[in-house]
Amino acid sequence: MRFTKIxxxxxxxxxxxxxxxxxxxxxxxxxxxxxxxxxxxxxxxxNSFIDATLPxxxxxxxxxxxxxxxxxxxxxxxxxxxxxxxxxxxxxxIGLIAGGDGAIRTAVEGAEDDLNQGWKDLKKQHISSLDTxxxxxASGTTPYVLGTLQRCKSKGITTATISCxxxxxxxxxxxxxxxxxxxxxxxxxxxxxxxxxxxxxxLNTISSVLMIKLGHVKGNRMVDMQLSNQKLHQRAIRMVCxxxxxxxxxxxxxLRIHGSVRKVLNHLKNE
Length: 271
Fold this sequence. Notes:
The structure is a single chain. By secondary structure, the chain is of the alpha/beta class. The chain folds into two domains: 208 residues, Rossmann fold (3-Layer(aba) Sandwich), CATH 3.40.50; 41 residues. Helices cover 49% and strands 8% of the residues. The chain has a five-stranded parallel sheet with strand order 2-1-3-4-5, with helices on both faces.
């Protein structure tokens, strides 16, 4: 199927090297402001995907992101933030990148061009029909992602995609395609810019809504967050104090004993 790679289209701006810092930052900012609206337009598709994924995760299924380059790194970023933010196991949301963990920092030549490697990487995660796989590729053509989605489809595994070109091969393979059309990049073809921002916004929405619906947020508080640093420990103390009548000293003691805001609040409720 032929389709137009909007992500590769010529920029709306030229002679960038002749512009001032102020002009460049303004252009980038103005272009970035269009991204949220592009994501808003596909909220029904995002919601449909979340509605399909939630029951699977309630039964123990996992959310698995797979991508290459910037797209793969964004998936890993979102997955890695779920344990400290929501107190879930690192196995609950997983991010895979073409070329393996070494590709997080340094590009691995040719890794994204292997049509079969993504499925091999998924099999190492003991993929099952309860899991949901999200292929992330701004262009919508990355072989590493495309091959994975094709194999998932043949195995009856639910799939989604986040790409920025309508009618792309990976969107055609997915059960739930999510395609924010952000237009040409300021720097022609640099999909780490608007396309990457759109992908991050969608990933934020997916994981945040799922974790809220799975019960990891109370009111608007991250009651299951891991107290892994001083900032989060201080936040937990404030949350306990604001949600109960205990003193700061008592909150510190209770958090030391119970280990999370939720467990402290449950303890106080049952006293």
